[in-house]
Amino acid sequence: MTTPTTDLALDDIRLGDPALWLRPDREGMFAKLRAERPVSFHEERDFPGVPKGPGFWAVTRYADVVRASMDAESFVSGHGVSIPDQTPELNEFFGSMINMDAPRHTKLRKLVSAGFTPRTIRQVEESVRAQARRIVDAVAPKGACDFVEEVAAALPLRIICDMMGIPEMDHRRIFELTNIILGVGDPEYASSREELMAAAVELFQYGQALAEARRTRPRDDITTALIQAEVDGERLTSQELGSFFILLVVAGNETTRNAISHGMRALTDFPAERARWMADFERIAPTAVEEIVRWATPVIHFRRTATRDLELGGQAIRAGDKVVLWYNSANRDEAFWRDPYRFDVTRTPNDHVGFGAGGPHFCLGANLARREIKVMFDELLHRLPDIHVTGVPGVHASALICGYRWTAGRSRRVLSTEYPFERNARRTAILYGPTCDVRALHPCDALSAGTARVLSWLAARPFRPSHSRCRMWHGRADARGARSLRAPGVRP
Questions:
Q1: Is position 126 within any domain?
Q2: pLDDT digits (tens, 9 = 90+) for 40-91
Q3: CATH of the domain at 195
Q4: Cβ-Cβ contacts under 8 Å for 291 (sequence gap 6 or more)
């Protein structure tokens, strides 16, 4: 297939400009950067409440992205993996171990790996199949559905919540909060730093309350495994548990959901590849799943910071410079991939960077994500063999996450699918909550000084979110009777 193009001049491709991410020619812009300016400098965007940063280098070619990922001494994560600068406390609060470097990252990764043992994954495999069947059971009689919300989002949400021991009544709220955190900058989800922080604190406190409940009443779930894990006589602190909970539920929900959504569209757009896979599903599934992840590249970029003066892709980089690795561009690099704009379910080899480009920060949940994608399409393609996309919405206005929008009970175009079953009118319910006041937070005594400063910063800033979905989990019911999210065993 031909390489996409753009009518933008090279100097007009400004990756820090939010308006650029609403354009339909993203692929063409990155193709031009790879060909003419593979490592280019860009100004940072203005973000409310955050001082404008010094700018960043954009790394767009596969070989350079892999090199920077593998060299964890020259390109570190401890200054943050998102483009805007944050305080060390905020970096740790939001990103847990993805915002750390060795040796602390090594220790924490060993501790949390206790929740992803082969035994745990085997147990999860049974749950993945059961949940995928439940999802198809629910949508099959309708004849049409909002694929993102009712299928793609439903599976990883249920699986990660089940793994953590989160009650089903709280799943919806967890889903809403992950949308706010990863959709910040997109006015459909969160338009301010305060909304972002409120969602993160809500998840943080929920995770800590869940962990406290497991200390007194252990269960066979990842939360219990995490609080009991030890490395060199050390266990996860309360702060580490809360921060890792944010990372786990956000990454576990959003990225797999977006891979499944993009996979469904790709199978619609490339019917010959779909037919090949359906003709020999089990044999082709391993390569098909990898191709879906390459095609989707759910996480568009992560940032690193240079620790020394060096050269990357022919460009001089100075110590302290921000270096942003564009995984979406690396996964379309014509110098590495043969026919990168063709969706090929038998592509071999397929050393994509959809789970990261190697090194110490390779995705911990990659095998779980692969399993979820395979099982979901197994159920869909065998039980609804004619399912196809009938309506495609815009993607998130985000430079971080490549995902389709979900309905949230609003009138907008959605990633809709049809299949030959009786059609029923779809009703989407949404809980609306009251205005948030972060002064109502009740931080746990075990919080670190850094997290306490974060909460103090929030406490001085009551706000009215642009979407009433922002609601603290220990808050009040609103006039409509909407229930607040509450950790099991914790009183409001």
A1: yes
A2: 999 998 766 667 899 999 999 999 999 999 999 999 999 989 898 876 666 6
A3: 1.10.630.10
A4: 343, 344, 345, 347, 350
